[in-house]
Amino acid sequence: MNESARKPRVAGFALFTLFLAAVLVALGVWQLQRRVAKHQLIAALTERLAAAPVALPPPSQWSTLTPERDEFRRVTFTATYESRLDAMVYSSGSAIRSDISGPGTWAFLPARLPGGDMVAVNAGFVPNTQQDRAPQDRAVAGLITNKPAMLTGYVRFPETASVLMPDAERDKRLWFTRDHLAMSRALGWGTVAPFYIDLERPVPENGIPRPGPLDVHLKDDHLQYAITWFALAGAVLIAFGVWARGRRRA
């Protein structure tokens, strides 16, 4: 009786073990696939960041731009900063600017193209540890000259706020994600391009806001993760083998 009851129990545990091992192997394969995709992305971003800037695509093409194909492309264009409410985006540092190491805010403001269309521009970093309006206001005031300027920067797309991200503080015009579309709606910028521009140059005489070149370094831990998942699958199978062998001896 005990022997007959033991066999279904072992068979059921064997099926569960095989299922769990298959899931762990699938996760390992998924990490290897992500590693291939990450290497392709790194190669594409490296190429885009090193390329000479091209003319900003005309508004008729804006709807065709995608993060996969156009993120971090260098562009150049003429625009005039609008005398409208700016927004600041808090940052504790930057993973894509090697010259930014401490907390502060990014200065976002709208700029009008010669044809009348609007583009949001991240004009650069403002040292602003307390997230105060005063340092940002002083920095942005120098940009509002009502004269067109030649701008060079990188095409970026808005971020999606995570559930852990604080909500925007509208009274301070302070955001915690680079969502220029939400800024435009809240601050009355009007219709803006579906992307924004991370400014590379020109740099103001006093250096604030501080634009600059981007240097993207993406984490590539996928091989390590894949090995971990494969090792766990092997450990599950070995543990089952030891357990089953002990059951047969009992």
Automatic annotation (TrEMBL):
Keywords: Cell membrane, Membrane, Transmembrane, Transmembrane helix. The keyword Membrane applies. Belongs to the SURF1 family. PANTHER family: SURFEIT LOCUS PROTEIN, SURFEIT LOCUS PROTEIN 1. The chain crosses the membrane at residues 223-244. The keyword tRNA processing does not apply. PROSITE patterns: SURF1. It is found in: Cell membrane; Membrane. It is a multi-pass membrane protein. CDD domains: SURF1 (cd06662). Its main location: membrane. This is SURF1-like protein. Pfam families: SURF1.
